[in-house]
Design brief:
With 222 residues, the chain is α/β, with parallel strands linked by helices. The chain contains seven helices and nine strands; from the N terminus they run H-H-E-H-E-H-E-E-H-E-H-E-H-E-E-E.
Length: 222
């Protein structure tokens, strides 16, 4: 699907920013997400391969909500390095008209300055801390994106992420929740828990080949 097909569904500035980034055709997962209610504030669980376009799905929801004055967006990632990378990418693409903040530091602060920003990129642990410190701007969040949501099953990080999602759903019952992952063993169960539409697609930009390496030769599966 060409991005012009959704021109009337997203703000003009967002459409222009996506086009300027070189995106002209929406990928299958993105089309499915839009059909499932992405731009209508529906909760979504998106399970598609790496590099299939999950981040743009999140961006479409977050930036649309901001430009339509529905509220802020929080983008939750598992690692500080990934948060820094997303912050750089989002500022480059949307920084001329959306205020993007990175919050991954001091766990003993409510970071009141974040009230002046539109997209807040954070780790689960930091956002959990912000909620527990009663950050006043939390109530203005309208879109919640959880990247690598399969880490709910991780022994160390999983419990914090599960509690965080539970608290966010209680504090922000009307907020749109979007979970992103390339690997979920029980997507139907997780989607039901999140009260979300399930978006599954197997398309990937580079074909995946399976094979066995033996004595200097790779024997690919036919």
């Amino acid at each position: 699907m060409h991005i012009d097909k959704i021109r009337d569904k997203i703000p003009q500035k967002l459409h222009e920013a996506i086009a300027a980034a070189g995106v002209s055709e929406l990928r299958p997962a993105q089309v499915k997400a839009i059909s499932a209610g992405l731009l209508d504030s529906k909760n979504l669980l998106v399970c598609t391969p790496t590099a299939s376009g999950k981040t743009l799905i999140a961006e479409l929801a977050a930036v649309s909500a901001i430009l339509n004055r529905k509220g802020k967006a929080v983008y939750v990632v598992p690692l500080k390095a990934l948060a820094t990378e997303k912050h750089s990418d989002f500022k480059k693409r949307y920084g001329s008209f959306v205020r993007v903040a990175l919050s991954i530091g001091d766990f003993d602060s409510s970071d009141p300055y974040l009230a002046d920003y539109d997209i807040i990129i954070s780790t689960a642990e930091k956002l959990d801390s912000l909620i527990r410190h009663h950050a006043p701007w939390i109530s203005a969040v309208s879109v919640i994106i959880i990247d690598e949501i399969h880490l709910l099953n991780a022994p160390g990080r999983g419990p914090t992420l599960e509690i965080l999602i539970t608290m966010l759903r209680q504090l922000l019952p009307k907020a749109q929740l979007i979970g992103l992952s390339a690997t979920i063993g029980n997507p139907e169960e997780l989607a039901a828990w999140l009260d979300a539409e399930l978006v599954i697609d197997s398309w990937r930009p580079v074909r995946l080949h399976q094979g066995v390496y033996r004595e200097g030769v790779i024997h690919f599966k036919k």
